[in-house]
């Protein structure tokens, strides 16, 4: 028995050795100092020489034994935002010698868990994949670790804020401090069924019924409403025998429906101007005293318009989250949806979408009129003055001020921010990382090529419109200002509930926004009006 | 060990449990409700050279000495006494009023349906029925389901485009009134079996000779039910009513998972609002005051209820 065991031992050892040598490697180093990173679909991403910084290198394990934890919205290994963390975890662990714990938290719980950790100084988590609307609480509370020095040190993977348009760059910084590493770029665009709207027969019918030509892409919200009303209830899609809709929205309370209102109302509300003044380029509060602007006639008219627009969609959408809404559009059931960049990439997934190659995209339209805050009168026939937006989270990594391993954490987050990774994220829609950076846009506006997107499975017609729309959006001359003050989450929660009440006919638009304004006043007073005013002015770059 | 010490030894775990998990949270939240609490943290970061095991500086690949950041943190808690301000604030808070209204409607309707339906089912199952044992076991299964999971389950059932109940055309979750009804329906589905189970046990405890004797006087089952069965069940009904009411006014899981409190605030219960206030917006003083208000209201209702019951017995 012993003899047999002794004979078998070398075989067992040889087997183990073979298994060890066959263990998958996620990084290949080239002689020129470049590296290749294995992402989970078998693709090797090539980095430029030196792009991974001074710490990572062949045989180097600069963070051996270090364990870091990063929170992210629940999504799993193939989920939006969480997916890239799972993909680059083994790569980083091989490069660094460290260990990464990915802590997935439901969206509704993420902010609470993060702020509890920060407010108590527990330091349980090293970083958070945050929504930009949390900055008011994180940055103003001094809860984030500024990364300027780490970026400049040359030791870590190299990325730059220069690839971001100013509208997005602002979301990643706080004053002179850079707090976020490059990640998602959120903004809403108008998606439509190009195949239907460009169809000559439908266009003729539209003209016969409404007496006007169908403008493509729609330039004004009023055009969108007219087209939605025309198509709503008609069976214009041949997928089933059921009538189809004009517009589909996600309006479930607590599920980010208020972003629809923000992106739609911006052009009803924002007075254009070269700089931020008391009346120009403001949306949330009067920058002289924090009086809410939310119940001004421009906002109220926009909400009334949204109520009208929602009638061209399924009644059930009052209780719908993003998933149901996107699926409705992907199944070919509505002409329009205005939503985030995820839609463009999900359309390309034929297991879920039946409209690949039929997609039209443009920057969200503008209103034909807006409310002049100074003269307190409507400005009619305002022309094409489309307002860009960065609504949403633009989800990205921020290091906790209490992390015991900020360097190791940054080495991971910066790895995810380098150009090849960021391009790969944008090319692959399931990552939830939407395009917004120069190297994600097509030439000549950016550095990407159509071939790269086609190789990732995109329809060329779809992707050209998609990227152009997002380029126009993030570089629009007038932008919807982003609310980044303490209590943003609470201000938006109040707005969200009242909008939901208005969209389900519990309140009129005026009542809903009056109630919002009254509740906002209470929040502002509770959080210290003077301090809120100071931070609001800084956030929107108002200098009196 | 003396007898006295032994007694203390055996009681100690229970006493510690009650103090740590009941008395302390109650006391702490009572204090919080009259304070405004703001936490802030001071952080000091110091860069220090990174040394290896031999105490030598660790270098980057290009030969630069590496550093690491050492963090020192101090948590500052700023307690400001606000007296009864948080309680006064509740009276002026529109959201609290709406949430209280939703909670009362929910509790009264749901508990009433559960008692009536539970009683009806208990009376039915108190007869000889084929496969009674199996049916009884199936009946009580919802009690063991986790409310949050039940909420998500019914979200798919009530889904208006393609869900199993979509053929009804009822706007289960998108209409404010129907949404509240849906929340009630789910609670009724889950907790009627509890009422049923308790009532059935009580029914089976009634002396059958008493019923048979009554039958000699009247053939009316209704009279027998109202004059014999119902009085005999009264203490049990009171217990079920109180237990269910105490649970119902704390409802949180089902609206949280099913409707998120919407549309608007149509299904936002009082506890849900307190949770959001305290744990989402960190207005913990106010959230504690809200919780205490609910506790006080529940205690008043129970006290009044019991005093009436006592009077009826005396």
Written overview of the protein:
The complex is a heterodimer of chains A (544) and B (314). Chain A is α/β, with parallel strands linked by helices and 544 residues long. Chain A has 2 domains: 27-181 and 393-434, 3-Layer(aba) Sandwich (D-Maltodextrin-Binding Protein, domain 2); 189-391 and 478-540, D-Maltodextrin-Binding Protein, domain 2, CATH 3.40.190. Helix content of chain A is 40%, strand content 12%. Chain A contains 20 helices and 18 strands. In chain A, the strands form 6 sheets. In chain A, strands 5-4-6-17-9 form a 5-stranded mixed sheet. A 4-stranded mixed sheet of chain A has the order 11-12-10-13. Chain B has 314 residues and is mostly helical. Chain B has 11 helices and 2 strands; from the N terminus they run H-E-E-H-H-H-H-H-H-H-H-H-H. Chain B has helices spanning 3-33, 85-92, 94-125, 132-139, 147-157, 176-205, 208-217, 221-248, 253-258, 270-280, 284-313, and strands spanning 35-49, 67-81. In chain B, helix 7 (208-217) crosses helix 8 (221-248). The model of chain B has no long low-confidence stretch (mean pLDDT 91). At the A-B interface, helix 3, helix 18 and helix 19 of A face strand 1, strand 2 and helix 10 of B.
């Amino acid at each position: 028995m012993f003899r047999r065991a002794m004979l078998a031992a070398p075989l067992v050892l040889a087997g183990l050795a073979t298994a060890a040598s066959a263990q998958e490697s996620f990084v290949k180093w080239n002689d020129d100092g470049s590296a290749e990173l294995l992402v989970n679909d078998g693709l090797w991403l090539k980095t430029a020489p030196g792009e991974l910084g001074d710490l990572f290198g062949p045989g180097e394990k600069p963070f051996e034994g270090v364990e870091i934890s990063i929170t992210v919205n629940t999504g799993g290994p193939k989920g939006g935002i969480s997916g890239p963390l799972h993909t680059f975890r083994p790569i980083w662990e091989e490069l660094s010698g460290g260990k990464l714990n990915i802590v997935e938290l439901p969206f509704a719980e993420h902010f609470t868990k993060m702020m509890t950790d920060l407010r108590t100084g527990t330091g349980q988590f090293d970083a958070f994949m945050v929504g930009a609307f949390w900055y008011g609480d994180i940055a103003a509370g001094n809860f984030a670790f500024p990364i300027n020095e780490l970026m400049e040190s040359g030791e870590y993977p190299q990325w730059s804020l220069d690839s971001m348009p100013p509208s997005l760059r602002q979301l990643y910084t706080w004053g002179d401090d850079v707090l976020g590493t490059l990640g998602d770029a959120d903004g809403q665009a108008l998606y439509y069924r190009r195949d239907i709207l460009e169809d000559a027969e439908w266009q003729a019918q539209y003209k016969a019924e409404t007496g006007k030509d169908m403008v493509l892409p729609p330039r004004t919200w009023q055009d969108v409403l007219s087209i939605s009303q025309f198509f709503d209830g008609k069976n214009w899609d041949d997928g089933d025998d059921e009538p189809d809709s004009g517009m589909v929205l996600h309006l479930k309370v607590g599920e980010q429906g208020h972003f629809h209102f923000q992106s739609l109302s911006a052009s009803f509300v924002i007075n254009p101007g070269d700089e931020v003044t008391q009346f120009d380029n403001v949306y949330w509060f009067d920058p002289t005293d924090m009086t809410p602007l939310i119940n001004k006639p421009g906002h109220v008219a926009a909400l009334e318009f949204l109520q009208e627009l929602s009638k061209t969609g399924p009644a059930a959408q009052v209780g719908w989250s993003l998933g149901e809404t996107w699926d409705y559009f992907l199944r070919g059931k509505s002409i329009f949806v205005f939503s985030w960049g995820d839609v463009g990439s999900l359309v390309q997934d034929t297991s879920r979408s039946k409209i690949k190659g039929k997609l039209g995209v443009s920057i969200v339209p503008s209103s034909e009129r807006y409310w002049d805050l100074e003269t307190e009168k409507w400005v009619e026939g305002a022309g094409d003055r489309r307002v860009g937006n960065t609504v949403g989270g633009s989800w990205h990594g921020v290091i906790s001020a209490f992390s015991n391993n900020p360097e190791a954490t940054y080495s991971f987050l910066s790895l995810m921010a380098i150009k090849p990774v960021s391009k790969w994220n944008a090319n692959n829609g399931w990552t939830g990382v939407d395009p917004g950076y120069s190297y994600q846009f097509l030439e000549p506006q950016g550095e990407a090529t159509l071939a790269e997107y086609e190789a990732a499975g995109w329809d060329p017609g779809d992707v050209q419109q998609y990227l152009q729309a997002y380029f126009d959006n993030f570089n629009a001359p007038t932008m919807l200002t982003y609310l980044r003050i303490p209590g943003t989450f609470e201000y938006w929660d109040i707005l969200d509930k009242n909008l939901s009440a208005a969209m389900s006919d519990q309140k009129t638009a005026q009542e809903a926004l009056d109630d919002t304004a009254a509740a906002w006043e209470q929040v502002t007073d509770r959080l210290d009006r003077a301090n809120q005013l100071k931070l609001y002015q800084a956030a929107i770059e108002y200098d009196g | 060990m003396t007898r006295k010490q032994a007694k203390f030894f055996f009681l100690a775990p229970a006493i510690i449990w009650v103090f740590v998990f009941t008395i302390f949270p109650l006391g702490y939240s009572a204090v919080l409700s009259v304070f405004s609490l703001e936490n802030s943290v001071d952080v000091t970061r110091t860069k220090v050279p990174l040394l290896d095991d031999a105490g030598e500086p660790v270098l980057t690949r290009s030969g630069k000495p590496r550093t690491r950041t050492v963090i020192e943190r101090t948590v500052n808690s700023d307690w400001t006494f606000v007296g009864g301000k948080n309680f006064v604030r509740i009276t002026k808070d529109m959201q609290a009023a709406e949430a209280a209204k939703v909670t009362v409607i929910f509790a009264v309707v749901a508990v009433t349906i559960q008692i009536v339906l539970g009683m009806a089912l208990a009376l039915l199952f108190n007869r000889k029925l084929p496969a009674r044992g199996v049916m009884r076991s199936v009946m009580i299964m919802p009690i063991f389901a986790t409310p949050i999971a039940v909420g998500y389950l019914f979200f798919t059932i009530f889904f208006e485009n393609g869900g199993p109940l979509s053929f009804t055309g009822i706007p289960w979750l998108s209409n404010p009134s129907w949404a509240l009804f849906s929340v009630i329906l789910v609670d009724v589905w889950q907790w009627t079996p509890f009422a049923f189970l308790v009532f059935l046990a009580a029914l089976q405890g009634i002396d059958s000779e008493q019923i048979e004797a009554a039958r000699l006087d009247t053939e009316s089952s209704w009279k027998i039910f109202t004059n014999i069965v119902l009085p005999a069940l009264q203490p049990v009904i009171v217990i079920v009513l109180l237990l269910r009411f105490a649970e119902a006014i704390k409802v949180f899981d089902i609206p949280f998972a099913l409707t998120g409190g919407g549309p608007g605030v149509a299904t936002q219960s009082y506890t849900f609002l307190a949770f959001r206030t305290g744990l989402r917006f960190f207005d913990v003083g106010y959230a504690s005051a809200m919780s205490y208000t609910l506790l006080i209201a529940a205690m008043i209702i129970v006290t009044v209820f019991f005093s009436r019951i006592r009077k009826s017995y005396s």
